[in-house]
Automatic annotation (TrEMBL), chain A:
<feature type="transmembrane region" description="Helical">
    <location>
        <begin position="101"/>
        <end position="121"/>
    </location>
</feature>
<comment type="similarity">
    <text>Belongs to the binding-protein-dependent transport system permease family.</text>
</comment>
<dbReference type="InterPro" id="IPR035906">
    <property type="entry name" value="MetI-like_sf"/>
</dbReference>
<keyword id="KW-1133">Transmembrane helix</keyword>
<keyword id="KW-0472">Membrane</keyword>
<dbReference type="Pfam" id="PF00528">
    <property type="entry name" value="BPD_transp_1"/>
</dbReference>
<dbReference type="InterPro" id="IPR045621">
    <property type="entry name" value="BPD_transp_1_N"/>
</dbReference>
<keyword id="KW-0812">Transmembrane</keyword>
<dbReference type="InterPro" id="IPR000515">
    <property type="entry name" value="MetI-like"/>
</dbReference>
Automatic annotation (TrEMBL), chain B:
<feature type="transmembrane region" description="Helical">
    <location>
        <begin position="142"/>
        <end position="165"/>
    </location>
</feature>
<dbReference type="GO" id="GO:0055085">
    <property type="term" value="P:transmembrane transport"/>
</dbReference>
<feature type="transmembrane region" description="Helical">
    <location>
        <begin position="272"/>
        <end position="296"/>
    </location>
</feature>
<keyword id="KW-0812">Transmembrane</keyword>
<dbReference type="InterPro" id="IPR025966">
    <property type="entry name" value="OppC_N"/>
</dbReference>
<comment type="similarity">
    <text>Belongs to the binding-protein-dependent transport system permease family.</text>
</comment>
<keyword id="KW-0472">Membrane</keyword>
<dbReference type="Pfam" id="PF00528">
    <property type="entry name" value="BPD_transp_1"/>
</dbReference>
<dbReference type="Pfam" id="PF12911">
    <property type="entry name" value="OppC_N"/>
</dbReference>
């Protein structure tokens, strides 16, 4: 087990190395190079020359790359052009917000998706099945930012039930030890602050959860349909195994493998979706910050954030692969 | 999106031995099964309508693309909505543009970006996939490593980052979305070709002394494109949504009043309280277009799937 994890982590290194090469030359391929990006509107030939000199952009590219990579390995990802603060710090400040949002969205997607997919499969061909199939098709094609708009309009503007922006109301007196607001509230016993943070999470999380939810419903349904007619399920029934045991240990457990794979793949979708959802709800996570950085052509932030996101994406998928062996002992590869 | 994740199974190009079939042709069979599927019909109708509206936009749209004929009717806290002013059946936006005209012109923009980016993605993916699948060995390893690197970044994020570097132009958006699709197509074509490579007829061709290039072009490629075509149809749906997302984030370029569905949503944000239809209408358009391609793509996949084909 440990060896498998170790091998997977080692395999990650060349991929990440390749990504740094790509990200480095990507920015160097810009018309005018990184100096023009730094200067923006103020880019005169003299100013570009000065910046090139100061930052070493006129040195040979391989040399620049080695220097840049060396700094990355020491944890120096450069400073944001916009905020002038270290990229790593900006990421660390905002990452908890996005994790909270993504976890909430995943809880919704899995918590609703698996039961719904299961019921749809058990009612194969009936109304509930058709409704869930149609609903999940719409869920897949609805643009995240459009759905976010509609949720905001209905629940925040029209009904006024839920807040439409931010992570916590201004007036709430809260201590932020970990920057995970919900966790902070629970740890410090300020339950009203935790509740306030959860309420702020609801709308963005629903918007973010929709596509994963639709995909999970579809995969669960298809997977359960495949398993439900298997010989061992029939044998179990014939032996008089109770309905609960058939459902939980025969059908669900065997149907979960493709579902878990899908959940792992959703991680990427959640991060991409966060860029759009956080923008609509002015939610101060990495997504909204990245959207601003992209618009402002803040390349150190773009490079750093893409790298961090790639690492988290890879780690999540590694976790998913490890979880296989807990769900299905047959997968325990040696 | 499911379109991106779902890797269809490789269809068997010729009928299974001993299975009587009304038509010997694979594509004839696919077409017959498509005709029997209501979802395929709905998808085909929606897609045809979308293409028709896009192509006929200059005829159908009451006003030119960037026109602001309703500029005089705007008030800071009020914009005429659908049905309120006869000249503007779907209301006007903050620039004084006719919403109906902009939706029609927007169909053109979406179709153009969707088709062009999928074409770029398909082209890049096919070249890489074909090289990897045809040669195998170190070429395969090298190409697949590059594909892995691209896949290590979530695809919309990849598209957004590329567009950010290329600058704010519609062409940049097309290329960005296209490049983000390359890994999917490359992987699909490669795996499909690798399966074909081991088959008896390829061995036979090789025994007859045919070169790698010839075998690739006449045997491997034509027999491997099935799943790629299915994926391309599904990818069109994703591309339309992604194009809207990128221009929603301000990457499309052009003037603010450009008739583009994603852009219309960006500006609708400020008027959500007084003019919600400005967000609602373009959103519905994006959804319907994406739904059409998805229905068509999934019906196509079902029709080509060897597991369900033996009906």
């Amino acid at each position: 087990m440990l060896r498998t994890i170790g091998r997977r982590l080692l395999l990650l290194i060349p991929t990440l190395f390749g990504l740094t090469v790509l990200l480095f030359f990507w920015v160097r391929a810009l018309p005018g190079g990184p100096a023009a990006a730094l200067l923006g509107e103020r880019a005169t030939p003299e100013a570009i020359e000065r910046i090139n000199e100061a930052y070493g952009f006129n040195r040979p590219l391989p040399e620049q790359y080695i220097t840049w990579l060396g700094r990355l390995l020491q944890g120096d990802f450069g400073n944001s052009i916009e905020t002038r603060r270290p990229v790593l710090e900006e990421f660390a400040n905002r990452f908890p917000a996005t994790v909270e949002l993504a976890v909430m969205a995943l809880i919704l997607a899995v918590g609703i998706g698996i039961p719904l997919g299961y019921w749809a499969a058990r009612n194969h061909g009936r109304l509930l099945d058709h409704l869930s199939v149609t609903g999940s098709l719409i869920g897949i094609t609805i643009p995240v930012f459009f759905l976010a708009f509609m949720l905001k309009w209905v629940f925040a503007v029209q009904l006024g039930w839920l807040p439409s922006t931010g992570r916590q109301s201004r007036g709430v007196d809260a201590t932020h030890a970990t920057n995970f607001y919900v966790l902070d509230g629970i740890l410090t016993g300020e339950l009203d602050a935790a509740l306030n943070a959860i309420v702020h999470l609801l709308l963005p999380a629903i918007a973010l959860a929709t596509i994963p939810l639709a995909i999970i419903v579809r995969i669960t349904r298809a997977s359960v349909l495949e398993v439900v007619n298997a010989d061992y399920v029939r044998t179990g029934r014939a032996k008089g195994v109770s309905k609960q045991v058939i459902r939980n240990r025969f059908v669900l457990r065997n149907a979960m493998l493709p579902v878990v794979t899908t959940i792992g793949l959703q991680a990427g979708l959640l991060i991409s979706g966060a860029v759009l959802t956080e923008t609509v709800f002015a939610f101060p996570g990495i997504g909204a910050f990245l959207a601003d950085a992209i618009f402002a052509r803040d390349f150190p932030v773009l490079q750093g954030f893409v790298l961090f996101i790639a690492v988290s994406y890879a780690l999540i998928n590694l976790l998913v692969d490890i979880s296989y062996s807990f769900i299905d002992p047959r997968v325990r590869i040696q | 999106m499911s379109a991106a994740e779902a890797i269809p199974t490789v269809p068997v190009p010729e009928g299974d031995a001993g299975q009587p079939r009304r038509s010997g042709s694979f594509w004839g069979d696919v077409l017959r099964r498509l005709r029997r599927n209501p979802a395929a019909w709905i998808g085909a109708v929606v897609v045809s309508l979308f293409v028709l509206v896009a192509l006929l936009a200059p005829v159908l749209a009451p006003y030119p693309e960037l026109a602001t004929p309703g500029a005089g009717l705007r008030l800071p806290t009020y914009l005429p909505g659908p049905g309120e002013v006869p000249d503007f059946p779907l209301g006007i936006d903050r620039f004084g543009g006719d919403v109906l005209s902009k939706l029609i012109w927007g169909a053109q923009a979406s179709l153009l970006i969707g088709v062009a980016s999928t074409f770029f993605g398909l082209l890049g993916g096919m070249v890489l996939g074909a090289l990897a699948g045809a040669f195998g060995g170190w070429v395969d390893t090298l190409i697949m490593r590059v594909v892995d690197i691209l896949l290590s970044v979530p695809h919309l994020l990849l598209a957004v980052s590329i567009a950010a570097v290329l600058g704010r132009t519609p062409l940049a958006v097309m290329i960005a979305i296209g490049v983000a699709q390359v890994p999917i197509f490359a992987r699909l074509l490669r795996s499909s070709m690798l399966q074909q490579r081991g088959s008896d007829y390829v061995l036979a061709a090789r025994t007859l002394g045919l070169g790698t290039g010839r075998i690739t072009m006449t045997h491997l490629l034509p027999n491997s494109v099935g799943p790629v075509i299915v994926q391309a149809t599904l990818t069109l749906a994703t591309a339309v949504i992604d194009a809207a997302a990128l221009s929603f984030l301000g990457l499309g370029g052009g003037r603010p009043e450009t008739a583009e569905w994603g852009r219309m949503l960006t500006y609708a944000q400020a008027e959500l309280a007084i003019a919600p239809w400005l967000a609602f209408l373009p959103g519905i358009c994006i959804m319907i277009a994406a739904l059409g391609f998805t229905l068509l793509g999934e019906a196509l996949r079902e029709a080509m799937d060897p597991r369900t084909r033996k009906r």
